[in-house]
Amino acid sequence: MIDAKNVTISDSEWTVMRVIWTLHQVTSRQLIDMMHETQGWSDSTTKTLLARLIKKEAVKQIGEHRPFVFEPAVTEKESMATAAIDLFDRMCAMRAGETIEQVINSRELSKDDIKQLQELLAAKAATAPEMVECNCLPDGNSDCCEVNDNEE
Q1: Rounded to whole angstroms, what are the CA distances from 12 to 19, 44, 45, 52, 97?
Q2: Please, which domain of life does this record's source organism belong to (predicted)?
Q3: 27 with 67: CB under 8 angstroms?
Q4: Which end of the chain has fewer CB atoms < 10 Å from its terminal CB, N or C?
Q5: In this structure, what are the phi and psi dihedrals at residue 72, rounded to the nearest 5 degrees?
């Protein structure tokens, strides 16, 4: 498998990847038909997205003859983690906690998921700082984030 940290996947490409991850292997015809049915995409749109994913090395072609079969070259779990970390790396570090809270409130979680999160948070609490430093400005000036509190 390719290291997902080196692969950036667009929103439309995520839609294609979810199908490929779910089916593990898919022919181009199966993928085209599924994207047409679920997304209303034309054949050329799906082919273009598939070609991009192959170029990015997120998907690999199996075999040399038709029907072409494709399978993921990156794992779903690692790709999701990379995308989430990339998102949080682009936002103010002081906003991470409230953003995670919003994500948790917007999702249905299993009892096992909640238990794992509680254990993780309890472990993180042991070494957590009183306040996370702002990373918006080079000098660590947190005034930039306090001004944004009025956005709500």
Answers
A1: 12, 13, 10, 11, 28
A2: Bacteria
A3: yes
A4: C
A5: -70, 145
Task: Tell me the CA distances in angstroms from 58 to 4, 45, 123, 143, one per residue in order.
Answer: 8, 17, 34, 41
Residue at token pair 């038709």? 66
Preceding peptide of 67 cis, ω within 30°: yes
Q: Which residue in the block uniquely carries the two structure tokens 């306090």?
A: 146
Structural domains in the chain plus CATH codes = 4-72 (1.10.10.10), 93-148 (no CATH)
Classify 25 in phi/psi space as left (phi over 0), alpha (psi -120 to 50) or beta. beta
> CB of 68 within 8 A of CB of 28?
yes
Best CA proximity match to 95, nearest among 135, 48, 47: 135
pLDDT tens digits, one per residue of 28-67: 999 999 999 999 999 999 999 999 999 999 999 998 888 8
